[in-house]
Structure formats: C-alpha cells, structure tokens
Design a protein that fits this description.
CATH superfamily of chain A: Thiamin diphosphate (ThDP)-binding fold, Pyr/PP domains
Helix content of chain A: 40-55%
Oligomer: heterodimer
CATH topology of the largest domain in chain B: Rossmann fold
Distance between the termini of chain A: 16 Å
Largest sheet of chain B: 7 strands, mixed
CATH class of chain A: Alpha Beta
Shape of chain B: globular
Strand content of chain B: 15-25%
Largest sheet of chain A: 5 strands, parallel
Strand order of the largest sheet of chain A: 1-2-3-7-6
Strand order of the largest sheet of chain B: 2-1-3-4-6-5-10
Number of domains of chain A: 1
Number of strands of chain A: 7
Shape of chain A: globular
Structural class of chain B: alpha/beta
Helix content of chain B: 40-55%
CATH architecture of chain A: 3-Layer(aba) Sandwich
Radius of gyration of chain A: 17 Å
Largest interface: A-B, 31 and 27 residues
CATH architecture of the largest domain in chain B: 3-Layer(aba) Sandwich
C-alpha cells in the first residue's frame, strides 16, 4: 500500500474494526490503541517487510508491541493483513481464546508475549544484535508508550543499543501525553524527551504520530541514518479519531457502550467519506 | 586431582561446545570474572555479549537473541537473576517459551558473609511456581559438565543454580549420569531416604557414610532436577524406606522439601523432615560456617536422620 490516502483510509477502517472488537469483548484499552493505530498502519501496510503467508520468514522485519495493552489495534492489523481470519477478532478476551488481552505468540504474526511494561526494548536490542551477528538485513521495530518510559529497564536497553551501535533498531514512542492516572508530566515528567534519548546516544526524530505523511517521512529518515539506534517520538492524541474519546484519560481502558459505539462508528464513517 | 568449582566446570565445557556451535552465546552482567568467563570471552568475542550491570536487560537481550535462533546462556549471580530480573524470566523467557538458559552462579549462601542481598535462598521457590521452566542444580563439577552438554541441545527455558566454591565430588570423570527429570540414586539403602539437591548432595552423601558406620543404610537421592519433578523416585523411596529427609541450600519455604511434602501428603504420607535455611536474614559467616550453624553439613544431616528414625 503506497499512497498516503490509502494508508489514511486503512487507519480509519482499523479503528472501526478495533472499536467493534472492544465493544464485543466488553474490555480493552481504547485510548492508547486509538492513538497508535496510525503508527501500526504506517509500519504494517507500508514500511515493514513481512508476509502473512510466511510469518516465520527469516528476513522479515520484526515488530514488538512493548506497550502490550494496545493489543486491540495490533490484533486488528494482523487480522486485516491476513495473519488470521478477521472473524476470530470476535473472540477477543473470551474464554479460551488465543486473543488474550496482551500480545500472545500463539497468535500468528505476534513475535513475543508482552504486557509487562519496559520489556520490549531489551528484547529488541537482543533481536537487533542477533540480526547483526547473522548478517540478517531485517529491521527491528519497537513501539513503546510514553508512560512506560518510567520503567528502568528501558534505559538499560537504551544504553546497550547505543553501545552496540544498533542502527537496525527503530523504536517509536506513542507520545500521547496521558497515562492511566493523568498527564505524564504530572505523574512522572518525561521532558525533555528528545534530549534524554540523544544523551543516551540515539538519533531522534519527532513526528506527528497521527499524520501519515509525517510518520512515513520520519520512518524514512530513521531507516537511512547509520551508526546509531533510532528513536521516533510520535506525538499523538490518546483516543484519536473519536471526538468524545480524544484526550480523556478515562478512555485508557474505557469500553464503549452500544450508543457510544454507534456514535464512534458514525464519526469514523464520516472521516472515511471525507477521505474518499 | 584438584577439584574445581561447578561454575568453572560449566564455563570450560561451554567454551568447548561454543567452539563447535556458533549459535551458543554467553551473556554477562559485568560478571565475566565471577562466572569465570574470561577465557571464553577472550577466545570467542563474537559469541559473548557484555550487558553491564543490568540483569533485567541481560535477560531481555537473551530472549531477543533466542528468537533470532541463538542459544543464549545468561550468566550472573543467582541472587540477582532470580529476583531482580524475575519478571523478565517469567515473561520473556518462560511465558514466551524462548530458548534461554538462565545460569545463576554463586547461588545459595556461596557469598556467605556478604549478606542477604547476595544470598539466593528463594530461587527454587519462585522458579517452581512459574510454568514452563526447567530447574537444575548440579551436584559437582562432573555432573555440571554433563549437564552443560545436555543444555546445549535442550530447547527451552532452563534455570540453573550452582555455587561458587569447589565441593567434594560425588561423581567421577567417567561416571556422572545426568538425565533431566530423572533423579540419581547415589547409595542404595532402605532405612531412610535422604533427598538432596545441588551442592548439598555431597553433604548428604557424606552423611550416609556416617550413618552406615552406625548400621543405618540410607538411600541418597540426587535431585539435580527440581522441575520436572521425579515423582516416581520419591514415591519409590517412601514406599521402600518409610521416611524421607530432604536437604537443600534454600529457604525451608517453597523448595525441594515442600515439593516432596506436597507429593507425599497426597500419596503416601511417611514421616519426613525438611532441612534448609531458617526464615530469617542469616547470621554472618562463610558458607561452611552457615551450613554448620543451620544444620546443612553432613554431621547435622546424619543427626537429623537418626532423630527422624526415632519418631
């Protein structure tokens, strides 16, 4: 999928699939999934080398969802990409479903079980280091939340990635500014984030994480740079795409009622009409 | 012949194996000296990853390497691997079923007087409660060598604990059987069974010699594998010996003793006693002083066996 417009349309469609899934399950992390959908779409439908018919392809790019609670968007993208039937999404969080509330390796396309925060980047460092040792040309992408950055293990991995000059590692922060208790800057201030990562030896680029053009450009820049691990700080809006969910902390794991779902789907359909 | 510590036996064997298998990778957390990985790191720099003092990251990196097809051996003091990086062991290794070997060295009270921060007396308990991870405690240098060979070809999460100092050997260069999940019977006897694991096995073995001089024939079982647990060996011992004494360099809570008790209470509740460390921050002392003070040395084990038989 190449054009920005096609990707934008896809991102709206994924939001619709995802909200329906959360509503059906009666559980989910709505806000952070909505904020990161555009990032997922830019990766899975444009930047990443992967093949749903051959999920274990040796040279595939690897994606790790370190903010594992945003799994709804991830499962939706994997199903839509053909890793497993879309009908399976209706089993999300249901009794004995493989679609557990955090990424589960038994689901085709999922690389690692995540859910405990601060784990994705160390694993990504191991994968990137392994790829270098093997001469495997793949790129390792790690998507982290911003609240997650308070975990110390992330900064251990940040040091290791620059120590080993892992330029095949591209990390992305879903910088929506909110975590479960409120604003990140009130809970545990993160700024100045760009300088922090630069000080740890990373190249950084800031993008609008809900703007497809900006995301693609940022990913292109990160891909071209050599010698250092790459950090993309993607400024996003939690709950993006649905007016009454945007920037409202309680939608972190709020579940839309039937009426709220209808309202949300209507808004997303209007967005689709505008794009088409 | 000079005895060598299990950790040294492990690193020497790993180096031999890694020379022939480029997928083997050793990771250290500024621990290459304490693990005795210096020669390995100098000989095979491309198969060695230094992680700095960051055990959580060390385990996460290993999981990532495993997913790329490597056979990572995470080497660090057991006290840190089994507590500080426990969540990585649980999620990135056990839950994700990655082919990572967690090698805890200087385990138990090896660090003696360095205090509770450096003791690992909870590791068996926590690892036992995590599904999907094999738990191994080799008894001496020869068994460690055989275990290491087996690990190089074993696909899946494993936690290994070994000590710092050299211990009396119970096996020899040409006899050191090691099969994961199958306990070794070291001495045949039907008066009492002494079930030991790791570096308490030599103490239990020596205790059986003391007991035999007094006409008591003890069956010593080397439980080098805590998980999967060799139920058959315990039930057979309960049936044929009628009393079981367990010995472990671990808290009395949650370790080998409780695993044996659990099995017996549901099947054949013969008299038993658990020898392990008391539920307290231990007094200061080197490891042999602590073994004596808390009753894990061969003489204390022999006394405990006689007391159990009197009941």
């Amino acid at each position: 999928m190449n054009t920005i417009k096609e990707l934008e349309i896809k991102a709206v469609e994924i939001r619709k699939i995802m909200l329906q899934m959360i509503h059906d399950a009666g559980a989910g992390h709505t806000g952070g999934s909505l904020s990161s959908v555009d990032i997922l779409v830019s990766l899975f439908y444009n930047k990443m080398k992967h093949d749903a018919n051959n999920p274990n392809w040796d040279e595939r790019d690897r994606f790790l969802l370190s903010k594992g609670h945003s799994v709804e968007g991830y499962y939706s993208v994997l199903a839509d990409s053909g890793y497993f039937p879309k009908e399976d999404l209706s089993t999300f969080s249901k009794f004995k479903s493989e679609l557990i509330g955090h990424p589960n390796k038994n689901v085709p396309g999922v690389e690692m079980n995540t859910g405990s925060l601060g784990h994705g980047l160390p694993i990504g460092v191991g994968m990137a280091l392994g790829a270098k040792k093997l001469g495997n040309p793949c790129t390792i992408y790690v998507l982290m939340g911003d609240g997650e950055l308070a975990e110390g293990s992330i900064w251990e991995a940040a040091m290791a990635a620059s120590n080993y000059k892992l330029d095949n590692l591209i990390a992305i922060i879903d910088r929506n500014g909110l975590q479960i208790s409120g604003c990140t800057e009130d809970v545990m201030s993160l700024e100045n984030l760009k300088e922090k990562w630069a000080a740890f030896g990373w190249d950084t680029v800031e993008v609008d994480g809900n703007n497809m053009q900006s995301l693609i450009e940022g990913l292109d820049i990160a891909k071209k740079r050599k010698g250092k691990p790459q950090m993309i700080i993607a400024k996003t809006i939690k709950g993006k795409g649905v007016s009454f969910m945007e920037n409202v902390p309680t939608w972190h794991h709020g579940v839309p009622s039937k009426e709220e779902l209808e309202q949300a789907l209507k808004e997303l359909d209007n967005s689709l009409k505008e794009l088409m | 012949m000079k005895k060598i510590p299990c950790r040294k036996s492990f690193t020497e064997t790993l180096l031999d194996l890694a020379k022939k298998d480029e997928k083997i990778i050793a990771l250290a957390s500024d621990s290459r000296g304490s693990v005795t990985l210096n020669e390995y790191a100098d000989t095979l720099p491309d198969q060695f990853v230094e992680c700095g003092i960051a055990e959580q990251n060390e385990v996460g990196i290993a999981a990532g390497l495993a997913e790329m097809g490597f056979k990572p051996f995470v080497c660090a003091p057991a006290c840190f691997l089994s507590t500080r990086s426990l969540e990585q062991v649980k999620v990135d290794v056990a839950y994700s079923n990655t082919n990572v070997k967690i090698i805890g060295i200087s385990g138990g009270v090896s660090y003696g007087a360095l205090g509770m921060s450096h003791h690992s007396l909870q590791d068996i308990a926590v690892m036992r409660a995590i599904p999907g991870i094999t738990i191994l405690l080799p008894a001496d240098e020869y068994q460690t060598r055989e275990m290491t060979k087996e690990l190089a070809n074993f696909d899946g999460p494993v936690y290994v604990r070994m000590g710092r100092g050299a211990v009396d050997n119970v096996y020899s260069d040409d006899f050191a059987p090691f099969e994961i999940g199958r306990a070794n019977v070291l001495t045949q006897g039907n008066d009492i069974a002494i079930v030991a694991t790791g570096e308490t096995v030599p103490q239990a073995f020596n205790a059986s010699k003391i007991l035999s001089k007094e006409g008591i024939n003890a069956r010593v079982l080397d439980f080098h594998t805590i998980k999967p647990f060799d139920k058959e060996a315990i039930l057979k011992a309960a049936d044929e010996c009628g009393a079981i004494l367990t010995v472990e360099e671990h808290s009395k809570f949650g370790g080998l003793g409780e695993a044996v008790a659990h099995l017996l209470i549901e099947n054949n509740p013969v008299p038993m006693k658990i020898i392990g460390f008391a539920d307290e921050a231990l007094v200061s002392g080197n490891s042999s002083e602590l073994f004596e003070y808390y009753g894990l040395d061969s003489h204390s084990i022999a006394c405990a066996a006689k007391e159990l038989l009197r009941k």
